[in-house]
Amino acid sequence: MARPQTDIEAGRKLLLTTVEKLVRARGAADISMTELAAEAGMSPSNIYRFFESKEALLEAVAEDWFADKIAVMEDVVASNLKVPEKMLAFFARRFALMCRRYEDDPELFKSFCELGDRHFEVVRGYVDLGDHYLAMIVAEAMEAGYFQGLSIDQCVSLINQMVFPYVNPNSLMMIMHNLSEEKLSVIIGTIFSGLNSNHAHAEIKNLIRMTPS
Amino acid sequence: MARPQTDIEAGRKLLLTTVEKLVRARGAADISMTELAAEAGMSPSNIYRFFESKEALLEAVAEDWFADKIAVMEDVVASNLKVPEKMLAFFARRFALMCRRYEDDPELFKSFCELGDRHFEVVRGYVDLGDHYLAMIVAEAMEAGYFQGLSIDQCVSLINQMVFPYVNPNSLMMIMHNLSEEKLSVIIGTIFSGLNSNHAHAEIKNLIRMTPS
């Protein structure tokens, strides 16, 4: 029974390639299943053999887009690196992947980011998965004595904020010329050496309430 | 000769209010000087008495938009706060201003951000001014022994990256629900306690080159 499965796989692959072709040609404009079928030389009803709904199609597009990042995250989490190096690799390798993809085709990268923003319900699972893997690294760091007095969730949130432009593709595009692996390594080092609960500033409300004279 | 000056000021103020009204009504769509004059009840030629060009108008809009942030930065830099508290106030008070303005009218805030992105040449001077004030605080911190082994420019760039979502209005809107003054205070504390040149990771290239199996 291998033939039908192969047929389905080939049809899906053709449709995903066609989505990329359409996004390349006209940006992040919405694509209907009918248009996609026509562009791929299929009948409108035939396309539903491969993707049962528009949502299923978008999920496959996202799966394709995130596949290499997930492979990197799994690989890093399973590695024997010491925990600061592990966290650096976790962010630096995905940053390198995104830069490479952006440089391959800046307009296509931008269009896929716009698509992702518009269909965030499809992307959310991948963001959560990234947080899940980061939480595993944070837990390992805590066992080694880092991040004292903070919870895993607090650390995940604070670390994501401190490396935000290296992770968020929209911000990455905005200030790419200022980002570098070297700076990221200093930031991760700063996090391991400085992040703990001693810094919650008790007088912050007073600092903020001071009004300009 | 006070009368004509007052007249000019009043005309400018009317036109700036009219710009805000138009942006509120139709978003960040481009506004022509002719449309603006009509909306303000002026003749197309009369508007040039107040702003000699579209560029001069946009500069006045930006000046208006950044006025309170600049007042805050000047006030903080001139204050007698200890340097970690000074840097926290420098970022936290502008963050509070942006949140307040966003909450007042999210759509208007978004439209002004889009306008700023589209006319970045007008905004750039204000970004540079922010960096200039931050550099003054960094220099003060270095005199107090912080940030060893790094240059002022390196520190300004790294610190801007670590607080990016608290400073960049587009990122701020994107993850506002995750941002807080308390987290910002932990981040600034982490910077003061952990940022120095010991963290430039020599083996970063090897960490990045590892490919997923």
Task: Please count the beta strands of chain A (DSSP E, at least 2 residues each).
Answer: 0
Question: Oligomeric state of the chains?
Answer: homodimer
How is the main sheet of chain A built? none
The global form of chain A is elongated
Count of distinct structural domains of chain A: 2
The name CATH uses for the topology of the largest domain in chain A is Tetracycline Repressor, domain 2
Query: From the alpha-carbon coordinates, what is the Rg of chain A to the nearest angstrom?
Result: 21 Å
Name the poorly predicted regions of chain A: none
Treating each run of at least 4 consecutive H or I residues as one helix, how many helices of chain A? 11
Per CATH, the class of the largest domain in chain A reads: Mainly Alpha
Structural class of chain A: mainly alpha
For this structure, what is the CATH homologous superfamily of the largest domain in chain A?
Tetracycline Repressor, domain 2
**For the terminal residues of chain A, how far apart are their CA atoms?**
79 Å
Largest interface (CB within 8 Å) is between: A-B, 57 and 57 residues
